Automatic annotation (TrEMBL):
SUPFAM superfamilies: FnI-like domain (SSF57603), Heme-dependent peroxidases (SSF48113), Immunoglobulin (SSF48726). GO terms for cellular component: extracellular space. Residues 1015-1040 are annotated as: Disordered. Heme b binds at residue 735. GO terms for biological process: response to oxidative stress. This is Peroxidasin. One of its GO terms (molecular function) is heme binding. Residues 1081-1139 form the VWFC domain. Belongs to the peroxidase family. XPO subfamily.
């Protein structure tokens, strides 16, 4: 018979340590055999505790928790096998796996007590304090893991906490003690003291502090934070060590101890003595400076020949032309700085000394190199002192009303603050490998904090470059474009004038060595660029400021290298007008005397384009097969970099001329200079309003706007210069907002026939504006297309990292790698240093970054690249930080941008916020300026833009989110109309009469009844003369007069007659001048040459201009594509032609 169970096993509960039996018996013929398995098929373990009874039951002695589970009984004979299952449920009292530890925490912080237990059933964790229930509030939380978390610990939370683990079998309790430490502001245990040391020595300044939490020590010198470098070292205790003391190190040092409670500071003054002794390098000064001048001049001349004698052939040429300064003063100042530094390098080579260590490990010191009097001689002979400006701010009447072009005299107490061609400002001291001028990473074998610095190109390819982009659902591409346009109003670094080594005149891209000014970007192994045989990407260092930024007339010490900002720092529309008088003269239309900017060819819309730049072949004439159209000329030399930027320049040049034309209509008595400066002042105010009111809140969000704070008043003690870290790293975050395509849309917001443009085809291509529909398609592509969303894993699109300025058969540049290399070139401290400056914690491990960089893959990439967070370059770290909710920035980037824009706002005497100055704007004029929007600028100055969204920075659905231009608020310029009396209009609006205007009666300044004083003295006089009853004012009565009243009336009448005669004479002269101008039918060409009426001339081979009744009109010839492989460009002929090549005959031998 088949087996059948007589007794089947049953589920059984048992306590740990007891014994248990699962009964099982069966009947059948033959008698079934009984066997057991664990689960379905697992054999029983070989354990003496486990046996099978004679009746077939399973017996387990001294049960433990591992014995719990499913067991199966099998009954088998030769006819069949049957089975039955049962569970042994082992119950166990709680046992602690994690025991809470005693904790000491500073009040206000969060503390966790970890407690975990096991048992069966699973124990429940409960917490008590001193045997009583926990307080019922949100600060005490028991997590699902059993952890007790107490947030914002208060003093009364101190005490014993008990963790209880409970199940049906039993319970266990364990306790831990919480000690609450009172918060203590840092107190100095060792304060710094004044010191006097000799030049060339090493010094240690002691400073230490205690507090709860443990304070962090930082140092400032003259308001700038000191960072770890070849010059400075801060010990864990807080002691500051300075190597190779020089006069540049003299000054006030401040030790700051900071914790979460507050901070304390103590300062000392370091005085440096310079003994009058000769130095080893003195004997080499004369020969070295002569050699330096020859080296630098030869390299610059070679570069100029290479760039200007032919069309650009490589991206390197494009980059050099793009950055080459057009202002002769800038060229001379950069040249002088290069000669100064090259001289010191040559002297160092002669005496085989320097500041820190050379590659052989020899100790070097720069302050022992040359004595102070010889340093001053080097400064004189190199040209440094000759090009140091001393601004004249004595014409208060002008400076009360208008800005200078170069930014001087904005701050009347510090006339050079914010001026062009001055050094960038610093928040943290520069970090150079030798403490003076060598960038980090210049030595490929050197380790920094135990790790080598990664190659910038490797950081770009491994971390930054992306082929994937995500459209932004909030903001348009115009958000990016305004940021770039604004940046070109704030900063432009002067780079080295030479592309060749000073030592032997070899081109930097061919030698790939770190010889000044070359600082090439090396290719890592397996880089796609290296597969074609290349070893490096072209890069040259920025030019140094003469004497590295020191301002004393006596240059008697070596200073760390600083870089030159070519532009004014203020938001003053310098990208429209230039940052020097020379640049301003280039873009002004001086011939018309109407205050206009020069204009170029007029399009079918009737609106002009920018004028063309003159001079040698430029970066825009790079391909003979595309077009011979030269670059456009604007206030900033980068206007042609890409077409969307060129379109913005065109908008604002037209806006100036529109405003100037209207001001002249309202005030025909104004001369050209007055119209120009008034229009320029309005344009600058419009740009500030758009930036601070419309653009910046979208970048900073509510959090950043609150950080920047409300504007209170102009502060002359706030330096408004551009921070080096802002120009070199922080504001370059905008590169992450760039779309890889420039969209071009027609009036119906559909693609134009020529299609959209990949970004690499938009670089230096003004011919596309001339020949492919003007600026409107590009502008619509900015405000009608979503921008690129900021995603920390989608940073710079590959159009910027792999195809920047690309040309046929050449290696393109990499913008991300260049940003990193430029930061090292400028001595920008690491990301970790800026975290500390911005009150974030100093990162010791990459996990310390998890609050700001949450993505573990990004942190892992940073660790693989840098090895330690202390080494991370500033730019890549800023762009991978997680965004603060509601803005476009991470926390460190937010800190840097709010700092910069607050300085620009509070430190600008001439900004639109400064209501108190009656010479800037009246309240009524300010009200009109606030009507400005970028949407209105587009409507007024586009070729035919008729519909926009009210806020062109925000994505809007077409057509529902768009409105007609007639419905966009506009600025009413009638508020700028002079409401002067007839007697005064002869001098009102004459630029050279500003002093007269400001010394004149205040009544002339008022345009509205409510703004006028109660009585006008001149009207009182006239009333008296006319026999009115009003008393005579401002008159002098003679004591000898028989009839004082009559004599006074006669004197006033004589004065009135004289005034009338002068007025009539002035009016006759102005009428003659106007008649002469109206009858004039000749013209003035772009070179200032007079052209007669109906005369035609060639501006260049492709441009024909003609004079017609005083108006110059130019036509540009468009070239058809050549039908041959190698068209030939003939001198004097616009378009390349095809020449049939003679067939070469084989020579018989």
């Amino acid at each position: 018979a088949r087996p059948n169970f007589v007794i089947q096993p049953q589920n059984t509960e048992v306590l740990v340590g007891e014994s248990v039996t699962l009964e099982c018996s069966a009947a059948g013929q033959p008698q079934p055999r009984i066997s057991w398995t664990r689960g379905d098929r697992t054999p029983l373990p070989s354990d003496p505790r486990i046996t099978i009874t004679s009746s077939g039951g399973l017996y387990i002695q001294n049960v433990d928790q591992e014995d719990g589970g499913q067991y199966t009984c099998f009954a088998s004979n030769n006819l069949d096998t049957i089975h039955a299952t049962a569970y042994i449920i082992v119950q166990a009292p709680p046992q602690f796996r994690v025991i809470p530890q005693d904790n000491a925490v500073v009040e206000g912080h969060t503390v966790d007590f970890h407690c975990e237990a096991q048992g069966y059933p699973q124990p429940v964790i409960a917490w008590t304090k001193g045997g009583s229930s926990l307080p019922i509030d949100r600060r005490h939380t028991v997590l699902s893991t059993g952890t007790l978390r107490i947030s914002r610990v208060a003093p009364h939370d101190q005490g014993q906490y008990e963790c209880q683990a409970v199940n049906i079998v039993g319970s266990r309790t364990v306790s831990a003690q919480l000690t609450v430490q009172h918060r203590v502001t840092p107190v100095f245990t060792n304060s710094p003291r004044d010191m006097t040391v000799d030049v060339g020595t090493d010094v240690q300044i002691q400073c230490s502090a205690q507090g709860e939490p443990e304070p962090v020590i930082t140092w400032n010198k003259d308001g700038v934070q000191v960072t770890e470098s070849g010059k400075f070292h801060i010990s864990p205790e807080g002691f500051l060590s300075i190597r190779d003391i020089g006069l540049a190190d003299q000054g006030r040092y401040e030790c700051i101890a900071r914790n979460t409670i507050g901070y304390s500071s103590a300062s000392m003054v370091l005085t440096v003595l310079v003994p009058e002794v000769s130095r080893n390098g003195d004997q080499f000064v004369v020969t070295s400076i002569a050699e330096a001048i020859a080296n630098v001049d030869q390299a610059i001349s070679s570069t100029r020949r290479q760039l200007f004698d032919r069309r650009p052939r490589t991206p390197t040429d494009l980059l050099a032309l793009f950055r080459y300064p057009r202002d002769p003063y800038t060229v001379e100042q950069a040249r002088a700085g290069e000669i100064f530094e090259r001289t010191l390098q040559l002297i160092q080579e002669h005496v085989n000394q320097g500041l820190m260590v050379d590659l052989n490990g020899t100790s070097y010191r720069y302050n022992d190199l040359v004595s102070p009097r010889y340093l001053n001689l080097i400064a004189n002979l190199s040209g440094c002192t000759a090009h140091r400006r001393i601004p004249n701010c004595s014409d208060i009447c002008f400076h009360q009303k208008y800005r200078t072009h170069d930014g001087t005299c904005n701050n009347l107490q510090h006339a050079m603050w914010g001026a062009s061609l001055t050094a960038f400002e610093r928040l943290l001291k520069a970090v150079y490998e030798n403490g003076f001028n060598l960038p980090r990473g210049i030595s490929p074998i050197r380790r920094y904090n135990g790790y080598p610095l990664p190659l910038p190109r490797l950081v770009s390819t491994f971390l930054i470059g992306t082929e994937t982009t995500t459209p932004d659902n909030q903001f348009t591409h115009m958000l990016m474009q305004w940021g770039q346009f604004l940046d070109h109003d704030l900063d432009s670094t002067v780079v080295a004038l030479s592309q060749s080594r000073f030592s032997d005149d070899q081109h930097c891209s061919s030698v790939c060595t770190n010889d000044p000014p070359c600082f090439p970007i090396m290719f890592p192994p397996n880089d796609p660029r290296a597969r074609n045989g290349g070893h490096c990407m072209f890069f040259v260092r920025s030019s140094p400021v003469c004497g590295s930024g020191m301002t004393s007339l006596l240059m008697n010490s070596v200073y760390p290298r600083e870089q030159i900002n070519q532009l004014t720092s203020y938001i003053d529309a310098s990208n429209v007008y230039g940052s020097s008088d020379h640049e301003a003269q280039e873009v002004r239309d001086l011939a018309s005397q109407r205050g206009l900017l020069r204009q170029g060819i007029v399009q079918r819309s009737g609106k002009p384009l920018l004028p063309f730049a003159t001079g040698p072949p430029t970066e825009c004439m790079r391909d003979e097969n595309e077009s011979p159209i030269p670059c456009f000329l604007a206030g900033d030399h980068r206007a042609n970099e890409q077409l969307a930027l060129t379109s913005m320049h065109t908008l604002w040049f037209r806006e100036h001329n529109r405003i100037a034309t209207e001001l002249l209509r309202l005030n025909p008595h104004w001369d050209g200079d007055t119209i120009y400066h008034e229009a320029r002042k309005i344009i600058g105010a419009q740009m500030q309003h758009i930036t601070y009111s419309h653009w910046l809140p979208k970048i900073l969000g509510e959090v950043g706007v609150k950080m920047m704070g409300e504007y209170k008043s102009y502060d002359p003690n706030v330096p408004a210069g551009i921070l080096n870290a802002f120009a070199t790293a922080a504001f370059r975050f905008g590169h992450t907002l760039i779309n890889p395509i420039l969209y071009r849309l027609d009036e119906n917001f559909q693609p134009i026939p020529q299609g959209h443009l990949p970004l690499h085809k938009a670089f230096f291509s003004p011919f596309r504006i001339v020949n492919e529909g003007g600026i409107d398609p590009l502008l619509r592509g900015l405000f009608a297309v979503a921008g690129k969303m900021r995603v920390t894993t989608q940073l710079l699109n590959t159009e910027l990292t792999e195809r920047l300025f690309s040309m046929a058969h050449t290696v393109a540049l990499d913008l991300a790698a260049m940003n990193i290399q430029r930061g090292r070139d400028h001595g920008i401290p690491s990301y970790n240093d800026y975290r500390v400056y911005c009150n974030l914690s100093s990162a010791h491990t990459f996990d310390d970054l998890k609050n700001e960089i949450k993505n573990p893959q990004v942190r892992e990439k940073l660790e693989r690249l840098y090895g330690t967070p202390v080494n991370i370059d500033l730019f890549p770290a800023l762009v991978v930080e997680d965004l603060v909710p509601g803005c476009q920035l991470g926390p460190t980037l937010m800190c840097l941008l709010t700092t910069q824009f607050k300085r620009l706002r509070d430190g600008d005497r001439c900004n639109r916020f400064w209501y108190e100055n009656p010479g800037v704007f009246t309240p009524s004029q300010l009200t009109q300026i606030k009507q400005t929007s970028l949407a209105r600028i587009l409507c007024d100055n586009g070729d035919n833009i008729t519909r926009v969204q009210p806020d062109v920075f925000r994505v809007a659905e077409f057509p529902h989110g768009y409105i007609n231009c007639e419905d966009i608020p506009k600025m009413d310029l009638k508020i700028w109309q002079d409401c002067c009396e007839d007697l005064d209009c002869r001098t009102r609006g004459q630029f050279n009469a500003l002093s007269y205007h400001f010394r004149g009666k205040r009544s002339l300044d008022y345009s509205f009844q409510e703004e006028m004083p109660l009585q006008n003295p001149k009207k009182s006089k006239m009333s008296s003369i006319a026999g009115g009853d009003a008393p005579i004012s401002n008159s002098t009565i003679s004591s000898r007069s028989v009839n004082p009243k009559r004599e006074t009336v006669i004197n006033d009448f004589q004065e009135f007659v004289l005034e009338m005669q002068k007025t009539i004479s002035s009016l006759r002269k102005q009428i003659k001048k106007l008649e002469s101008r109206l009858s004039k039918t000749d013209c003035t060409d772009e070179n200032g040459k007079e052209r007669s009426n109906n005369e035609n001339w060639k501006k260049d081979p492709c441009t024909t201009c003609g004079c017609k009744e005083g108006q110059v009109t130019c036509f540009v010839e468009t070239c058809q594509p050549a039908n041959c492989l190698k068209p030939v460009k003939t001198e004097g002929v616009c378009c390349p032609i095809c020449i049939k090549q003679p067939v070469k005959k084989n020579r018989k031998h």
